[in-house]
Design goal:
alpha+beta, Jelly Rolls, five-stranded antiparallel β-sheet, four-stranded antiparallel β-sheet, 26% strand, globular, disordered C terminus
Length: 186
């Protein structure tokens, strides 16, 4: 009996198709992908476009903590036990973003070494960039240092937006935008 050999796993192909726990959404400029305090239940992969990641301090100040682009992952805090989002992510340009459920990404990390390598390499590279940008300071120290400082002293962009503001006003809800369907997956 001739058995078919398993085709090699292609992480980029996995990330480009809707299937099971994956959805692909189009986002318009300024559209919210998720808001600070939303449930943390998935990881996102930017297929095209750019997004910004912001946090709002207890004092109501908003800080841009990352600018991400095509090829970047975000929202992986759910894999470390984060139950609520600690930041808001919004599209800076028109974007195509894949949403991967926590269950689906956990499964593929365990079953597909090529994907695990891609994902871990991304996390390590981003971690290295963050450490280079803020030598000797933890995120908690950074928050304490900048909570009362002016923006020029902190080296970060600060915008006074009240913490109670609705940061999800342009969020399309769970649907996220236009779903694209893989003809094979249905």
């Amino acid at each position: 009996m001739n058995r078919k050999a398993k085709l090699p796993f292609d992480p980029k192909e996995f990330l480009s198709k809707v299937n099971g726990g994956r959805r692909i959404h189009d986002y318009q400029k300024d559209q919210i992908v998720f808001g600070q305090g939303d449930p943390s239940d998935s990881v996102f992969y930017i297929q095209s476009g750019k997004v910004k990641k912001t946090i709002v301090s207890e004092q109501g100040k908003e800080a841009v903590v990352a600018l991400l682009e095509a090829g970047d992952f975000f929202g992986e805090g759910c894999l470390a036990g984060e139950t609520l989002r600690l930041s808001t992510v919004a599209a800076l340009t028109k974007c195509v973003i894949a949403r991967i459920s926590k269950e689906d990404i956990t499964r593929v990390i365990h079953e597909e070494p090529a994907f695990a390598e891609l994902f871990i390499s991304h996390l390590l590279a981003r971690n290295s960039r963050v450490e280079e940008d803020r030598p000797g300071r933890s995120a908690v120290q950074f928050e304490r240092e900048t909570s009362g400082a002016d923006s020029s002293a902190s080296g970060e962009f600060w915008q006074g937006r009240p913490a109670g503001a609705d940061h999800r006003k342009s969020q399309p809800g769970d649907a996220g935008g236009d779903d694209r369907h893989d003809p094979v997956a249905g």
